[in-house]
Amino acid sequence: MSLYFNAEHELFRQTIRRFVEREINPFVEQWEHERAFPGHALFKKLGELDALGVSYPEAYGGAGLDYWYNVVLAEELGYADCGGVPMAIAVHTDMATPALAEFGSDELRQRFLAPAIRGEMIAAVAISEPDAGSDVAAIRTRAVRDGDEYVINGHKMWITNGTQADFITLLARTSDEPGYKSMSLLIVPTNTPGFHVSKKLEKLGNHSSDTALLAFDDVRVPVANRIGDEGQGFVLQMQQFQKERLIGAVSAVSAMERIVEMTSHYCRERQTFGKPLIENQYIQFRLAELLTEIEALRQLNYHCTRLLLAGHDITKEVSMAKLKAGRLAREVADTCLQFHGGMGYVEEYPMARYFRDARLLSIGGGADEIMLGIIAKYAGLSRKRG
């Protein structure tokens, strides 16, 4: 046990660690080559472990446990041999379903949250658009009310799980009122007429995770599929972003630790000029610096988790964690690749994959520049926006 985790947390950790070792890592090379992983098969196995709803209500199949279990899940998934599969799972557990779990109607949660927790449905969250990435307020997708239905038209881009999802948590404009008060969150089943996967996107990294451009052409969903009140979608999404950014930073710590450990092992085995590379003091000191930075980020993540559980607004602190995680991941990737020399540059070795996968963290879930803007605002360095 540790200061933050009890015996039950650690038992759960061992369960997820075994899962990663047996059900993910042996297949990573294949999934990376195929540019997708078998989401429904893998999620069903995770559902059987009660890993997809650890902090969700028991009434919908969740375990009803504290959020530290989500942290444990993210930490252990970070030890996977790729970034794509952990990201896809995190989208399902901490990005597409939190608002549904907290603010969805009982009927909506029975229809979508419960099967998502069981691993029978895959969830995706659709916020970004071709002309609106980190600028959420600029989205154009519209959901026009027609009686007891919304008619949805528009496009969503960069959607993780987009080709495999059974339902989408969609942010769309539901009124002409200016600003963020015109947006609502809607659950859209992907078998609804008018929904299309326009294109599967080929990315620099995270190859095992499917990412798509989605189209909504007169897609009709019941008004009852709305999460919360009309016009509250932007606020609910901003709340969800905090968990998304926290889980991203948590998972990044484990991935960085794994790469530094791999680099240390390589430098012990690699002989240059008649001695192991690790005997070079510069390499020792540089890896020691990275480990120090990683540990500092871990403690910031744990601080954010404590604040979250205590009911505090974590926007500033989690933005700092997200910013630090993205920048540190790039530093770890670049430094460790350099220490691997030519072996770090070939695809047959995991270093190149990490170098590619890690780059997304400074973009997805809010770019570094967005994080800096949030931190500056909360620190009183810029004018607060209304």
TrEMBL record:
<feature type="domain" description="Acyl-CoA dehydrogenase/oxidase N-terminal">
    <location>
        <begin position="7"/>
        <end position="120"/>
    </location>
</feature>
<dbReference type="InterPro" id="IPR050741">
    <property type="entry name" value="Acyl-CoA_dehydrogenase"/>
</dbReference>
<dbReference type="InterPro" id="IPR037069">
    <property type="entry name" value="AcylCoA_DH/ox_N_sf"/>
</dbReference>
<dbReference type="Pfam" id="PF02770">
    <property type="entry name" value="Acyl-CoA_dh_M"/>
</dbReference>
<protein>
    <submittedName>
        <fullName>Acyl-CoA dehydrogenase domain protein</fullName>
    </submittedName>
</protein>
<feature type="domain" description="Acyl-CoA dehydrogenase/oxidase C-terminal">
    <location>
        <begin position="231"/>
        <end position="377"/>
    </location>
</feature>
<dbReference type="InterPro" id="IPR006089">
    <property type="entry name" value="Acyl-CoA_DH_CS"/>
</dbReference>
<dbReference type="InterPro" id="IPR036250">
    <property type="entry name" value="AcylCo_DH-like_C"/>
</dbReference>
<dbReference type="InterPro" id="IPR009100">
    <property type="entry name" value="AcylCoA_DH/oxidase_NM_dom_sf"/>
</dbReference>
<dbReference type="InterPro" id="IPR006091">
    <property type="entry name" value="Acyl-CoA_Oxase/DH_mid-dom"/>
</dbReference>
<dbReference type="Pfam" id="PF00441">
    <property type="entry name" value="Acyl-CoA_dh_1"/>
</dbReference>
<dbReference type="InterPro" id="IPR009075">
    <property type="entry name" value="AcylCo_DH/oxidase_C"/>
</dbReference>
<dbReference type="GO" id="GO:0033539">
    <property type="term" value="P:fatty acid beta-oxidation using acyl-CoA dehydrogenase"/>
</dbReference>
<dbReference type="GO" id="GO:0003995">
    <property type="term" value="F:acyl-CoA dehydrogenase activity"/>
</dbReference>
<dbReference type="GO" id="GO:0005737">
    <property type="term" value="C:cytoplasm"/>
</dbReference>
<comment type="similarity">
    <text>Belongs to the acyl-CoA dehydrogenase family.</text>
</comment>
<dbReference type="InterPro" id="IPR046373">
    <property type="entry name" value="Acyl-CoA_Oxase/DH_mid-dom_sf"/>
</dbReference>
<keyword id="KW-0274">FAD</keyword>
<dbReference type="Pfam" id="PF02771">
    <property type="entry name" value="Acyl-CoA_dh_N"/>
</dbReference>
<keyword id="KW-0285">Flavoprotein</keyword>
<dbReference type="InterPro" id="IPR013786">
    <property type="entry name" value="AcylCoA_DH/ox_N"/>
</dbReference>
<keyword id="KW-0560">Oxidoreductase</keyword>
<feature type="domain" description="Acyl-CoA oxidase/dehydrogenase middle">
    <location>
        <begin position="124"/>
        <end position="219"/>
    </location>
</feature>
<dbReference type="GO" id="GO:0050660">
    <property type="term" value="F:flavin adenine dinucleotide binding"/>
</dbReference>
